[in-house]
Design goal:
Elements: H1 17-20, E1 28-32, E2 34-36, E3 39-46, E4 49-57, E5 64-66, H2 68-74, E6 78-85, E7 94-106, E8 109-118, E9 130-133, E10 141-145, E11 150-154, E12 166-168, E13 177-182, E14 185-191, E15 198-201, H3 202-205, E16 210-221, E17 226-234, E18 237-240, E19 243-246, E20 249-253, E21 259-261, H4 263-266, E22 270-274, E23 279-283, E24 288-289
Parallel strand pairs: 4-9, 5-8, 14-21, 15-20, 19-24
Antiparallel strand pairs: 1-11, 2-3, 3-4, 3-7, 5-9, 6-7, 7-8, 10-11, 10-22, 12-23, 13-14, 13-18, 15-21, 16-17, 17-20, 18-19, 22-23
């Protein structure tokens, strides 16, 4: 989740056949993806125990997180090192311990001796006992197939297609950052499966025109800062590869330095990440996609009751 992203460890359909056709010679491993408010949850076992409910968060540049409660229940050994977590504002930080997961099994694949940050993990609509970060999947093609609710792991490599559906990305802090266009302006975006929407930083939002102007609809919090989250309907389009979001509803966060492409805009896609080749692939049924208000805003304990959203931001039908 981008607010707890590793920010120095830092804390970003065609059905699935087109993706698998590139790697048909390799074994394919799949598991159900339990979607809650747009975010991808899976069931994993740890050293043969479980299953436990984890979220796959490509906006987290660490191998894993585990809650203190689960770490204590499983008596996980503590690693000698600690890590520093910083929020996107780069203000302050927090030293946290690391534990070792002997074996994490997902979709029939065993990940050995996984170092996990011991830290609370917030889940939607139920308990979340941990998080699988982006770098855990460095040796596999990771596909999050949102329309078919599947997580797929396979070997092989993606092949460039001239920027139509296969796009380059970089991962300076262990999270995937790719280019997209907001009203024709090229900007960088963190592809964050644990994120809550299509989010613009305030500096970029200040130069946009709106069909529905920004209004406060929730409150968020980083490790050091509490802030308002605004929503608005863009008077223009967002384009990534060959795909266009026409006049989407976006969020505006003061804490985010980059655009955040979260799980709601991923809902129409099977998204495949190839960390070895630094390529990602987006597969969807159509080239033009509608993005309405996020399914659930960020909420905090004792958060003031938000004002009702404007009717034009609320999906009908």
């Amino acid at each position: 989740m981008a607010l707890l992203r590793k920010l120095r460890v830092s804390f970003a359909i065609f059905l699935i056949a087109p993706v698998l056709s590139q790697t048909a010679q390799h074994a394919t491993h799949s598991a159900p993806m339990i979607e809650r408010y747009g975010k991808p949850y899976v069931m994993v076992t740890i050293d043969g125990k479980g299953p436990f409910r984890f979220i796959i968060d490509t906006g987290t540049g660490a191998d894993a997180f585990v809650t203190p409660e689960l770490a204590d229940e499983l008596r996980l050994p503590t690693a000698p090192e600690m890590v520093m977590l910083n929020d996107p504002s780069r203000q302050g930080g927090q030293r946290v311990p690391v534990v070792v997961l002997p074996t994490v099994r997902l979709a029939g694949v065993d990940f050995k001796l996984v170092k996990a940050i011991r830290h609370a993990v917030t889940g939607e609509a139920g308990t979340c006992q941990g998080m699988l970060g982006f770098t855990l999947f460095r040796d596999y093609l990771l596909t999050l197939d949102f329309p078919n609710r599947q997580v797929i792991l396979t070997e092989g490599a993606l092949t460039p297609d001239g920027g139509k559906a296969v796009l380059p990305f970089r991962m300076p802090d262990g999270v995937p950052i790719a280019s997209l266009r907001v009203n024709g302006q090229s900007v960088e975006a963190n592809l964050d499966s644990g994120g809550g929407g299509l989010t613009l930083p305030e500096a970029l939002a200040a130069h946009q025109k709106w069909d529905v102007p920004p209004v406060v609809f929730a409150t968020g919090q980083t490790l050091t800062t509490r802030f308002d989250i605004k929503a608005a309907r863009l008077s223009g389009d967002v384009r990534i590869g060959k795909y266009t979001f026409n006049h989407p509803v976006v969020e505006i966060h003061p804490a985010f330095p980059l655009v955040n492409f979260g799980s709601p805009p991923m809902q129409s896609f099977a998204v495949t990440f190839d960390q070895k080749s630094l390529l990602l692939r987006l597969d969807a049924k159509g080239d033009h996609i509608k993005l309405t208000a996020p399914p659930s805003p960020t909420r905090l304990t004792n958060q003031p009751k938000p004002l009702p959203s404007p009717a034009k931001l609320v999906p009908l039908g």
